[in-house]
């Protein structure tokens, strides 16, 4: 049934990031190193937050979930790209392409809501410290996480419902290393102007809306701190700078890809690499190297591990 509805095209061919042999070898080495770093860095964050009781707080609960989403986003595309570079078979089935698009947008939607939840956590911690444990209760954290997954699913299904019935009967080459709506839609044999507009509105709206909401929340927090204590402004700015960095690195490329009306392939490929390999590394680096509690927790866990080895 699906094959009849979809098209005669059974697979797509990725053109990848480089056509030169030397460039592909460099990309392969680069991808392996960075993906290994993504896995180790994000698993370290999840492991530390899970097993250190001092980090069982709303902020670190959200941070651990952010690391899980980053790890999943990277795993969705990078292993396939590494395999393509190594074996030279840069193809993906039609169903595989659709699944990759679906999961990509679910995870992207979840991460954006998690960033909003983390901004809410910082607002309550900085501006309403006496009410922090009441507002950011375990129930509220679970509700925020459930809401993030609900938004991600709705966001992805709403777009995919209009795309799966498109007819594909001609070109099957995607000038990238992964599947996504903009290039996928352009390969359809029918007029896709309305669908392209819908995807731009949907993904563009959630990207721009999230970005504006987060920046406004950070400005509001800084203004509130400045009104209460000018001395606390530098501390609040230092704390929020990590969040602002993550927001710009993650949402910036999304805005460029889905909202910018004049797409340029080299820039899109660079931004995609940033989203799937660089940002997932920077998140654990930013939140661990600039966080005293995380560094202390890692020292405690490493000391416990070493003592267990000595006993055994």
Structural commentary:
This protein has about 300 residues and is mainly α. It contains eleven helices and three strands. A three-stranded mixed beta sheet has the order 2-1-3. The longest helix has about 35 residues, at about 195-230. The N and C termini lie far apart (about 60 Å). The model is unreliable at about 1-5 (pLDDT under 50).
The portion of residues forming beta strands comes to: under 5%
Average of per-residue pLDDT values = 84
Largest sheet: 3 strands, mixed
Number of helices: 11
The helix-strand sequence is HEHHEHHHEHHHHH
Which secondary-structure class do the elements indicate? mainly alpha
**Helical proportion, percent range:** over 70%
Low-confidence stretches: 1-7
Spatial order of the strands in the main sheet? 2-1-3
Question: Based on DSSP secondary structure assignment, what is the total number of beta strands?
Answer: 3
Radius of gyration: 21 Å
Gist?
The chain is mainly α. The chain is built from eleven helices and three strands; from the N terminus they run αβααβαααβααααα.
Features of the shown structure:
single chain, mainly alpha, three-stranded mixed sheet, 11 helices, 3 strands, globular
Task: Detail the topology: elements first, then pairings.
Elements lengths: L1 H5 L4 E4 L6 H31 L6 H30 L3 E3 H34 L4 H4 L2 H26 L9 E2 L6 H6 L6 H36 L4 H27 L5 H25 L2 H20 L1
Parallel strand pairs: 1-3
Antiparallel strand pairs: 1-2
